[in-house]
TrEMBL record:
Keywords: Cell membrane, Membrane, Transmembrane, Transmembrane helix. PROSITE patterns: MFS (PS50850). It is found in: Cell membrane. This is Putative transporter. Signal peptide: none annotated. Gene3D superfamilies: MFS general substrate transporter like domains (1.20.1250.20). Residues 21-404 form the Major facilitator superfamily (MFS) profile domain. Coiled coil: none annotated. Its main location: membrane. The lineage of its organism: Bacteria, Bacillati, Actinomycetota, Actinomycetes, Mycobacteriales.
């Protein structure tokens, strides 16, 4: 017999999601990766086409990063919308907005108009990211939830290989890069057919409070408990983006490697992220959440250590493998940690916090690193980043040990 309180909390959602629905949720992770990487091969062409525009160079760069700014600004409101309505409906709306904003660059004539289209894409990405994470949070079994979180990261990283095909198409016609965002239209069909209807989180919260006697608004539950993992994902993205921002210039300008060698070195990260993310549930079954995050930052530290002293392709590729392992662990670990700590009816707002931290780290990375790079050089910055990441790993190791001691104390009582 179905317990009505369990139903009110939304804990039966995983029973309703088919394999096709879970695959759809996993594929939504590709949209964040494609938002920035798919357009990157076309940015030099955009700058060349609009070089007559007095602000053409700046605006062409904003085409590549403008969506991240919009996601940071819109994600909190996306959380409120998804909290008021069904996450499934918000996800489908976000996919529609993402497709329209992304593909619009194929026909918009001016760079300013393309930039507006990228802002629309950012709005859609914010809606999709928050709603998808909230739907994954509705899976009651933590093992199943960790599995889909790992698969989401693996699929997202694998989509980075699509950039190679986009680069070839861009050589023929630079606007072809915008057609990649039509993939969101395919996901609309699967989301419509395969994702289950669920109760509105706000309505779920009211029923849960009435039946369980709760008094504290669930949207604020776990605000402090998920502060550590939310900060971890922001810092992780900040240090991770030191690589695509600065490493290609270091490889080519300082050490004279070819563009092909640079591409191969950067691509070494993709299989590391994908494979690690797929094995992430097994890691979570053996370590506490803070210890998993600590392991991710240790891997970051080892990766930046290799990048800081290397001059040849093997050393750079080894550094990329370690940083790929770190990202394959960190993103699903933080998402799983937040979804496990927060109350079930407050997971939508918590998902918005995570998305804001993730894209804020991406956006702040170049602004915080460029002054240091000009002052001491790229590899010195990587050395400092290595020490910084290992220090964060020590902090999370302490949190993990402290948590185990508290659990042991409760058990002894």
């Amino acid at each position: 017999m179905v317990n009505r309180y369990e139903l009110a909390r939304g804990l039966l959602a995983d029973e309703e999601i088919s394999k096709a629905g879970l695959l759809t949720l996993a594929c939504t992770g590709t949209l964040g990766t494609l938002a920035g990487s798919a357009i990157s091969p076309a940015l030099p062409h955009i700058r060349h086409v609009f070089e007559a525009n007095p602000h053409g160079e700046l605006l062409s760069k904003m085409v590549g990063v403008g969506h991240a700014i919009v996601v940071v600004l819109i994600a909190p409101f996306a959380g409120v919308i998804a909290d008021r309505f069904r996450p499934r409906s918000v996800l489908i709306l976000g996919l529609v907005v993402y497709a329209i904003g992304g593909v619009s660059g194929f026909w918009l004539p001016e760079v300013e108009e393309i930039l507006v289209g990228r802002a629309v894409l950012g709005i859609g990405l914010a809606l999709v990211s928050v709603a998808a994470l909230a739907l994954i949070g509705g899976i009651s079994n933590e093992g199943s939830r960790n599995k889909i979180l790992g698969q989401q990261v693996a699929v997202a990283s694998s989509s980075g290989l699509l950039v190679l095909a986009v680069g070839a198409a861009v050589d023929l016609y630079w606007r072809a890069a915008f057609l990649v965002y039509g993939f969101s239209g395919v996901l609309i069909l699967f989301a419509w057919r395969c994702l289950p209807y669920s109760a509105r989180p706000s309505a779920t919260r009211r029923r849960a409070r009435n039946w369980a006697g709760g008094s504290l608004p669930a949207r604020y539950c776990g605000l402090y408990r998920h502060l550590a993992p939310t900060m971890a994902i922001g810092v992780g993205q900040l240090v991770f983006f030191l690589i695509p921002i600065h490493l290609p210039f270091l490889i080519q300008d300082a050490y004279g490697h070819s563009a092909l060698a640079t591409g191969l070195i950067m691509a070494a990260q993709v299989p590391a992220v994908a494979v690690t993310a797929l094995f992430f549930p097994y890691l979570m079954a053996r370590l506490s959440r803070p210890m998993v995050v600590a392991a991710a930052f240790c891997s970051f530290g080892f990766g930046f250590a290799f990048l800081s002293v290397s001059s040849g392709k093997p050393g750079f590729m080894l550094g990329m493998l370690f940083t790929g392992i770190a990202m394959g662990v960190l993103i699903p670990a933080v998402n799983g940690w937040v979804l496990a700590e927060v109350s079930d009816s407050g997971r939508v707002i918590s998902s918005a916090y995570v998305i804001v931290a993730l894209f804020l780290g991406q956006f702040l990375s170049p602004f915080m690193s460029n002054p240091l790079v000009h002052l001491v050089g790229v590899q010195r910055v990587y050395s400092l980043t290595c020490v910084f990441c290992l220090s964060i790993a020590v902090v999370f190791m302490f949190l993990g040990r402290n948590g185990r001691r508290r659990s042991a104390g409760v058990g002894n009582k």
